[in-house]
Amino acid sequence: MGLNHQRCLVFDSGIGGMGVVQALQHLQPDLVIDYLADTALYPYGEQRDEPLIARIVHLLKTAHRRLRPDIVVIACNTASTIALPALRAALPIPIIGCVPPIRWAGRVSKTRTIGLLSTTATARRPYVHQLHADFAPDCKLIVHGARRLADLAEQAFLGKKLPAEALKAEVDALLNQPGGEQIDTIGLGCTHYTFLLPELELYAKPGITWLDPAPAVARHALTILETAPWQDRLEHQAATLYLTAAPQGGEDFSHAIKRLQFGKWDIFEDRFECI
């Protein structure tokens, strides 16, 4: 069978990974990008690790069998921090993860005080503290686990007007912590927050450097893809957007995904009931 273009599968619990899709499309327009969102279990931070790992592995093994991607990008911090080893053992293709940009922040910060906006689940995971110890031990790390921001990002993706007071409260909750006045660099610890970045910048003090990992993840994925073996597939297989539960937003969702070159969405039949 002939092949037209390489193929990438982007996975997240919701729409957060669409920021990585945007970056991939900008960097390599010919790349065929499939998207799988486990919307039936959004948000992942509310789930227990072991059954969640089993579910993620099952979903991506099924998606690999159907779509035959050349590479998978796990555009979800929670899924990356708990499931990457299991996924790399289960799938015969490169798996790229997405983790909070603490190492990057440590390279950039001049005051040596860095901030991280993340979900509450990411904020409490030992993985974050290990990243700090391994890659930015000379920096003070201040973390705010902002449960509302992911939901606000889903609304931003749909083009909805966002409540300014809610966004300002989350930024203030980070900057008003002890030592927060020294923060000069803030990393986005959830892929959803890409869609909030312009608003978040409005409510922070001037001069802060904001780090969105989506473009860096996209660049890394394309570098790995350069040497990845191509999978056999039907050359006419169109890019697909799969969800494990019907989306909220109706026409707004349809318009939003069309901006990212997905003409429609379908339910991903996973038949997995371990959670």
Automatic annotation (TrEMBL):
Q: What does the record give as the organism's lineage?
A: Bacteria, Pseudomonadati, Pseudomonadota, Alphaproteobacteria, Acetobacterales
Per UniProt, the enzyme's principal EC class comes to isomerase
Q: Which InterPro entries match?
A: Asp/Glu/hydantoin_racemase (IPR015942), Asp/Glu_race (IPR001920), Asp/Glu_racemase_AS_1 (IPR018187), Glu_race (IPR004391)
Catalyzed reactions: L-glutamate = D-glutamate
Q: Does the keyword Secreted apply?
A: no
Picking any one GO molecular function of the record gives:
glutamate racemase activity
Entry annotation: catalytic residues: 76 (proton donor/acceptor), 190 (proton donor/acceptor)
Query: Can you say what this protein is called?
Result: Glutamate racemase
Matching entries from Pfam families are given as: Asp_Glu_race
Q: Has UniProt tagged this entry with the keyword NADP? A: no
Q: Per the UniProt entry, what is one GO biological process?
A: peptidoglycan biosynthetic process
Which annotated residues bind substrate? Answer: 12-13, 44-45, 77-78, 191-192
**Family note:** Belongs to the aspartate/glutamate racemases family.
Entry's EC annotation: 5.1.1.3
Sorted keywords for this record are: Cell shape, Cell wall biogenesis/degradation, Isomerase, Peptidoglycan synthesis
